[in-house]
């Protein structure tokens, strides 16, 4: 999988996953790997700066929770994060449509 193509989609991927339920970092990387059929594994060096950026934009909030295996930092989407996710999903559909049409040829 071309990681360069994914770079612009990281926020969309993270917001999409976190919108479904609160998640912690390792869980996010595991889900992405599973959903990509093991073709993509997001590194910690990509994940945590991206989550910090989403927090700074107030699209996600972080909180700590005690679990049987220890304390974990969870991320949950905010109302403004949901609005941004909807915008990014619409933009993605436009891009997907453009790629499809351009692949079909000009005639």
From TrEMBL:
<dbReference type="GO" id="GO:0003677">
    <property type="term" value="F:DNA binding"/>
</dbReference>
<dbReference type="InterPro" id="IPR036390">
    <property type="entry name" value="WH_DNA-bd_sf"/>
</dbReference>
<feature type="domain" description="Transcription regulator PadR N-terminal">
    <location>
        <begin position="14"/>
        <end position="87"/>
    </location>
</feature>
<dbReference type="Pfam" id="PF03551">
    <property type="entry name" value="PadR"/>
</dbReference>
<protein>
    <submittedName>
        <fullName>DNA-binding transcriptional regulator, PadR family</fullName>
    </submittedName>
</protein>
<keyword id="KW-0238">DNA-binding</keyword>
<dbReference type="InterPro" id="IPR005149">
    <property type="entry name" value="Tscrpt_reg_PadR_N"/>
</dbReference>
<dbReference type="InterPro" id="IPR036388">
    <property type="entry name" value="WH-like_DNA-bd_sf"/>
</dbReference>
């Amino acid at each position: 999988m071309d990681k360069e193509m994914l770079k612009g989609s990281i926020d969309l991927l993270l917001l999409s996953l976190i919108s479904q339920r609160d998640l912690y970092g390792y869980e996010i990387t595991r889900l992405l790997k599973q959903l990509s059929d093991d073709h993509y594994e997001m590194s910690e060096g990509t994940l945590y700066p991206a989550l910090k950026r989403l927090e700074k934009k107030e699209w996600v909030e972080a909180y700590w929770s005690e679990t049987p295996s220890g304390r974990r930092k969870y991320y949950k989407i905010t109302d403004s994060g949901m609005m941004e996710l909807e915008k990014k999903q619409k933009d993605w559909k436009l891009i997907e449509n453009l790629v499809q049409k351009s692949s079909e040829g000009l005639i």
